Amino acid sequence: MSLTRRRLFQRLVTLDETQLNPEVVSDRGREARVEFAAQATPAGAKPVRISSNENPLGPGQHVLDAIVGKFPEAGRYPFNATQNESSLPAAIAAKFTGAKAENVVMGAGSGEILTNAVRAFTTSAKPLATPWPSFENPYTTAKKIGSPVREVKLNDKLQVDVEKTIEASKGAGLVFFCNPNNPTATVHSHATVADFVKRVRAASPDTVILIDEAYHDYVTDPNYKSAVDIALATPNVFVTRTFSKAYGMAGLRIGYAIGHAPTIKRLNDFKMPYGIGTPHIGAMLAGINNPAHIEQERKRNTDVKAFTVKALADMGFTATDSQANFIFVNLKRPAAPFRDACAAAGVLVGRDFPPYEKTHCRISIGTMAEMQRAVDVFRKVLGAATTTAAKDKQ
Ligand SMILES: Cc1ncc(COP(=O)(O)O)c(C=O)c1O
C-alpha cells in the first residue's frame, strides 16, 4: 500500500487498523448528529443511535473491500473510472425481469430522486399528494418550490389510507405512496398497490405515481411484493429504492428510481451529473451482487425487532406491525420527555411525528446488544413515569 493510499485509508480504519469502520461508511448517526446536537448524553459512553433508521452494522466486508479497491481511482471522475457511473443503470436493470438501462436513473440517495420528482412533476397548479405522516422529503421540497401539498391522514391501522389517497390524487402532479411507510412501518400488499395504481390512472391519468420502497429489503409480510413489475409496465409510475438501509450505505448516498422509460427520462433531466463517487460505484456493484448478505441482514433485523417488540409489549406498550428496520410504538405519553430521558441515559430515539407525537415514538432497530441496552433504559424511563403517575393518583 502506497503512503498516499495509507493516509486515505487511515481515515477509515477502526482502532486496530485492520478494517474499514462500517460506521464511518454508513455515516451512522448523520441525521442524529444534526437532530441531537443539543441533546445531552452521558459523557464518555458511546450513545446507542436508534434514531435514523440506519443499518447498525454498515455495509459488510465485501463492500468495504470494494471501496478500498477503488480508492486508487478516486482521482478520476466517475465517467473515467474503470466501471463508470453510466454502467450502473444497466447493472441495476439486470436484476429485474424486463428492465433495461433506460428504465433506471441513479441518485445521490433516493432522497435526490424524491426531490427531483417533486421538481419535475409538481407546479403551483399541480399539487403533491402525500400520506401524513410519511417521509418528509417530498412534502418539504414541494413547500420550498411553492407547489401545494395535499396531506392525507393515515387510516386507523396507521397505514397509508388508499381510498383517501386516490381521492387526493385527482388533478395532482405527483402522488407519493410510501410502502413501507416511514414512520409507521406499515405496508400494503402487492394486490392493494396494483389496485391503487389502476384506480389513480383511471381517475387522474396525468398524475405521476411514486412508490417509495426504501425499506423493501426488510419486509417479511408474505402478501407484500415489490411494485417494480407494475412500474415497468405502466405509464407515469416509478419505484424508488436506496442503498442506505439494508445495504448499510447511508453515508455513501446511493439510490435509484426504476419505472416506465419516459417517466425516468424526465427524472434524468433533473439528475445531478456524476453524483455518485468513483469508490461508491464499486461499493454499489459489490452490494447488489451479494444478495445473501441482504438476506442475512433481513433475518438479523427481524430477530432483533421481535426481541424489542416483545420487551415493550411485556411492559404494556404495543407497536404497529413493523415491516421495516424501525418500530412505531404507542407509549401512551408524549415522545419528547421520553426521548430526553432516554438521551440522558445514552439512548437516542426518533424525532416527533405529528399528529402522533403525544402518544407514539419511532425507534430504529440497532444490534441485539444495543437493543438490550436500550430496552433496559426504556424499562427504567417508562417504569419511572408509570410509578410517578400512579403516585399522583393516590
Ligand atoms: C421512506 C424513505 N424514503 C427515502 C429515504 C431517503 O433515503 P436516502 O436518501 O438515504 O436514500 C428515507 C430515509 O430515511 C426514507 O425513510
Write structural notes for this entry.
- The chain contains 15 helices and eleven strands.
- The chain has 394 residues and is of the alpha/beta class.
- It has a seven-stranded mixed sheet, with helices on both faces. Strands 1-10 form a two-stranded parallel sheet.
- Helix 4 runs antiparallel to helix 12 (278-288), helix 6 packs across helix 7 and helix 8 (162-169) packs parallel to helix 9 (190-203).
- It is globular, with a radius of gyration of 21 Å.
- The N and C termini lie far apart (70 Å).
- Residues 1-5, 13-19, 29-38 and 387-394 have low confidence and may be disordered.
- The protein binds pyridoxal-5'-phosphate (PLP).
The total beta strand count reads: 11
Q: Which whole number gives the mean pLDDT?
A: 90
- Widest sheet: strand order? 2-8-7-6-5-3-4
The coarse overall form would be globular
**Cofactors, ions, other ligands:** pyridoxal-5'-phosphate
CATH superfamily of the largest domain: Type I PLP-dependent aspartate aminotransferase-like (Major domain)
